[in-house]
Input
Amino acid sequence: MTQPTPIRREGAHLAVALDLARHGVPVLPLRAGKVPFGNCSGCRANACGGRPNMKTPGPCTCPTPCHAWAAATTDPNVVTGPSWSSAWKQAAAVAWHPGGIDLTVVDLDHADAVAWARRTLPITRTVATTRGEHWIYQGSMPSANGVRPGVDIKSLMSYARWLGHGIGSATALPDAVRALILKKPSPVRPVTVAMPLASGTCPHRTPVFLERGITMAEQRIWQATSGIHATVYRTFLAVLSTHGRCGCLTEAHMGRLFTAAQTKGESPRHCTDAWSNALTALGM
Output
């Protein structure tokens, strides 16, 4: 009796990648050591125009897969195409880009990290790893390594090794996970920047409108993954444009915005400069 021909390793990885891609999961090959294949010569030093800075996945247009997470694709023609054929022959695993499908992986690297997650985080889809677990949440966020002992966050602009679908359903990304990437804020120092003077009747029907505006501004700053200086300035400008002329905006509100900015690494001086520049731009 003829024995079935075993599937070669690269064939197995390719089959997994194709199945994921057909279900809308951006994938890429990994070589030994759980690292992506090296950038091609045409892309080194960002020569190809900035693919690593993009926040969405897509096939790299270079001859070989490169740029790690940004090379991830859902196009089966790319997965099986000639530019990836040599990579699959050398691949040791399949990776996927969680942020590309609005997911976040909390990578728990050992038993202590898993125990911490079980005490602290809401239950969600769980995938067993060699030494710990991946907890998968619905929602994306900036990625960061070493947010606490044995814990990495893999979401936007990052990749995770594919280890199976896991068990359970993915629940909404909790604030407790988002807070893991925030730097400990420095105390908001007293500033000499004046609050804008009231120059008209308050157009807000309820304080809820102002509170929602400040909360949204804080979130916009917290979620910024690049261009922090510009994001802080534009956010201050938007808040002052909407709420700065009627007298509702208080120093407490300004303090909240400054604190949010400082959690992203802004210094008190940068906060003061951004606030002053926004006031000047609006003629306040």
